[in-house]
Amino acid sequence: MIELQHISKSFGTKEVLDDISLALDSGTSLAILGRSGTGKSVLTRIILGLITPDAGRILIDGQPMTRRVRRAFLEQTGVLFQASALFDSLTVWENVAFRLRNGRARVGRTEARERAEVALGRVGLEPRVADLFPSDLSGGMQKRVGLARAIIGTPKYLFFDEPNSGLDPVTSTDIDALIRELVTDLGATAITITHDMASIRTIADEVLLLDAARARWHGRVSDLASADDPLLARFLAR
Amino acid sequence: MTRALLPLTLLGRAALGMLRRIGSVTLFFLNAVIRFPATLRYPRELARAFLQIGWLSLPVVGLTAVFTGAALALQIYAGGSRISAEAVVPQIVAIGIVRELGPVMVGLMIAARVTSSIAAELATMKVSEQVDALTTLSTDPMTYLTAPRVLAGLVTVPILVGLGDILGLFGGFVVATQGLGFNGPSYVTTSWNFLDPVDIVLSLTKGAVFGGIAVTLACHAGLNAGRGAQGVGLATKSAVQAAAILVLAANVALTGLFFGQ
Ligand SMILES: Nc1ncnc2c1ncn2[C@@H]1O[C@H](COP(=O)(O)OP(=O)(O)O)[C@@H](O)[C@H]1O
Ligand SMILES: [Mg+2]
Predict the structure, then answer these.
(1) Exposed, middle or buried by CB within 10 Å (0-12, 13-18, 19+), for A169?
(2) Where is the ABC transporter domain (chain A) (predicted)?
(3) Inter-chain contact A85–B138, Cβ cutoff 8 Å?
(4) A52, A102, A158, A191: best to mutate for the B interface, most B CBs within 10 A
């Protein structure tokens, strides 16, 4: 379970998040929705410990996020960054297998490569891309490599920052199905930032709408239709 | 009244900012050093750092040294002839290169070549979230990115300085024997006998210090880069500037330490 208690964050005079609280049960998939620049990425970066909040705290399974808790948390966490964030100096398969090769387990080269190719297959990439460098790939392919890197090693927590942006509709639908499958099969807890309502219906159990630094609406996907929030209605109308 | 004090306030603020930066860079350096044992887990990153900082710097360092030694020999000869002291060329070139110009030229070349490329590389990684990606993949960026580079700087730059010294002496030797009428074998013996072991120790020490400065500032600026392409440019510029100035300042300090009264 991931719990956020009264999280606030400003950059200079700009207030990005104001008193956000949230509890996400294990095995639940949350979609974060909101206009660009409303702090969706910042919120996930705070949970990952990449940005320190000005106020508030985060608990994982009831434990405050100390250094030790965070280390254990990150070891079971896969992240797809908004801009993919692949390592330029490593090949595709080395990127995907990074955790296996450099993490605690220290998986051997041959096995790591095999597992990387399996992960690439799950995101619809052929083994022949394995030896290319990220700069050889299109933005959409980089995104899928990032996704493969996030899901390798069966993580318990998954973070996807705009997994569908820049993808064609077919791949996008496949990726949504994959995310749903991971959450269902692994029982993973997932947080996905997306603008796509079709995606949300596939992948999410709950929706959080961020607006003007506040959590404007939080509820179950099944309750979306009956919600009477004008901004939410505009997102739904798309 | 307050307006009259404004320049002073600005000066004070700049001085405080500088002190804060020196403090934070020093701490950053120590943080890299304590990770040297841990960084051995990443042999590939280490190899890349040694290649980037040491091996690939050889051509530029070598050429700079040869030309500097050659020009120095010409100058000493021309200057010496005014007081009928042309014969001191081998001795002055020897200490000039080994104590000062060898390490300083190498230090400045490293500041230009290595500091800029490391700062730009790490800043790009920072702004494109690759550094954050490392963290979420349970890999400490200081151990994976900074420690190998700082270690390589401390080890390879003294070696580069040693080679630069030799090539600088060689540049002076060529000019002196081919253009200025010096006898080859006796030029070499005179130079060699004039050099003291402490000169060589100083030279290599300067190399290690300059290497440490150039690489540490580069990594510090890169990992603290602001956002966007502008952040990369700014980080690179400020790292190169600071490295060049600090190399020259450290050079004075080290010379004073070894030969000051
Ligand atoms: N490191 C940072 N420094 C300063 N401002 C930031 C930083 N990160 C994000 N911001 C600002 O915070 C706001 C929210 O950003 P972000 O969370 O990326 O938006 P989005 O909801 O589109 O993901 C934006 O205005 C952005 O400019
Ligand atoms: Mg974002």
Answers:
(1) exposed
(2) 2-237
(3) no
(4) A102
8 Å CB contact between A234 and A197:
no
Element (H, E) at A31: strand A29-33
Contact, B218 vs B75, CB < 8 A? no
| Candidate of A8, A9, A11 to mutate for ligand 1, largest count of ligand atoms within 8 Å of Cβ | A11
- The shortest C-alpha distance from B6 to chain A (Å) reads 25
Q: Quote the tokens at residue A7.
A: 């999280």
Instruction: Please state, in angstroms and rounded to a whole number, the distance separating the CA atoms of residues A160 and A164.
Output: 9
Task: Determine the straight-line distance between the first and last CA of chain B, rounded to whole angstroms.
Answer: 44
For residue B9, what pLDDT band results from cuts at 50, 70 and 90? confident
Q: Give the model's pLDDT for residue B1.
A: 52
Report the pLDDT averaged over residues A172-180: 87
Residue-level pLDDT at A124: 87
Rounded Cα distance between A188 and A159, Å, is 10
Q: Please name each of the domains of chain A with its CATH number.
A: 2-76+155-237 (3.40.50.300), 86-150 (no CATH)
User: Taken in order A39, A44, A50, A54, is the CA torsion positive or negative?
Assistant: positive
CA of B117 from ligand 1 middle (Å) equals 28
Give residue A42 CA to ligand 1 midpoint distance, Å.
Answer: 6
Per the CB < 8 Å rule, is B136 touching A74? yes
This model of the complex carries an ipTM of 0.93
Of A45, A75, A87, the CB nearest to B130: A87
- Helix (H, G, I), strand (E, B), or coil: what is residue A53? coil
Q: Which of B121, B132, B138 to mutate to test the interface with A (most CBs of A within 10 A)?
A: B138
Asked whether the beta carbons of B26 and B210 are under 8 A apart, the reply is: no
pLDDT band at B51 (very low <50, low <70, confident <90, very high): very high
Taking only the tens place, the pLDDT of each residue in B199-239 is 999 999 999 999 999 999 999 999 999 988 899 999 999 99
**CA A84/CA B199 separation, integer angstroms:** 52
Q: How confident is the model at residue A172 (pLDDT cuts 50, 70, 90)?
A: confident
pLDDT tens digits, A7-34: 999 999 999 999 999 999 999 999 999 9
